[in-house]
Amino acid sequence: MEMGVTIESAIALTSIHSLPRVVETIPLNDAHGRILGISLHSKVDDPRFDNSAMDGWAVIETDCNTYPVKLKIIGTLQAGDDSDVVVEKGTACRIMTGAPVPNGADSIVMVEDSEVVGDEVIINGKARPNFIRIKGENITENEIGLNSGVLLGPAQLAMAAMMGYADVPVIKPPKIAIIGTGDELVEPGDILEPSQIYESNTTALVGLVSSMGCEPVKYPFVSDDIDQLREIFNQASLECDGILTSGGVSMGEWDLVRRLMEEEGDIKFWRIFIKPGGPPLFGLWNGTPLFGLPGNPVSSQVVFMTVVSPWISNSCGFDKSNGPKLFEKVRVKLLSDAKGTKKKVTLRRLNIFWQNDELVAEVPDNQGSGNLRSMVDCNGLSLLPIGVNGNAGDIVDALWLK
Ligand code: AMP
Ligand code: MG
Separation of 400 CA from ligand 1 center, angstroms? Predict the structure, then answer.
């Protein structure tokens, strides 16, 4: 077991024990929000054939070098038409957007630049070759159009459809158990005794797990009782691919997740050099990867973002730029001081916004790791390196939360 690791080593140590990556095929129209499991090669050229980008006239460019000029109308082509019309010198074929460009024509005059008189058209504007969309200019048959690991949104799904896919191979969401722990916890809405609080961490974790393309499986939270914990760990390790717990990982007498993992599990590391979020642990319970996240509400979310989300991303082979992610790493100018920490990377909550073409960040006052409101009121986290203070005006790394 390693005692105290950097974020980078935590990510490296966890990625050895990855989630299963299983690919299943589902109908395209059910795939919104899923993650592509295998790269898709286009089954067609796009465009499939040279076609007009405008409603207008298919012509020979040199016929229209000087205008106005009269051309003889030799036919009409609508999108979907298949014709053997040939445009010759002195002629024009009426053409609609998306219709195949007839043989002989090398450019298009838009309809706004024309006037029909009997069986002739008077061209009043430029003939433009770039109004023809060339076969294969967007993608050619067999070329990869979508990379494995991309998140399928409307544009990606439309692309899959354009490439000819009725079904798509997607990653089967790994099942992640979510287990809250603590004697003080009460289900939101139930009656609170004076020393109790509403349980909130597992609700955040359900959202975070889903945003990362996994299936959250929320278990009833357990009190600080080692037998109950063991029982639920056993159940979760049978039913799920990974386990997240919240609470019970510090040095306290009642920090039983840590104790149980020490005595009966297999801890790979305990503590990460970050603030907030110091005491998390990672290990295996019956061979199933388990993250013991801290109980403090801000800490549990921060540790998920910095360590659990890269673990999921690496396990599932998400595309680095276009896969599911919870933040964008950016550089921001601090508008006020952000205190660092001697031996830890400091993730201060930030409010990031654009000001005069640069990203700037306010540093709100109340930065307690129990202050859930600070997560709601902010949209970013600083990444101050170990032992570094951020001063107003400094440009620092930050996570811009989605
Ligand atoms: P622990 O890590 O168990 O010592 O908990 C640290 C702090 O986080 C305590 O103030 C707990 O009451 C609080 N806490 C622990 N688990 C949760 C939870 N699931 N929801 C809300 N607060 C929690
Ligand atoms: Mg506790």
Answer: 26
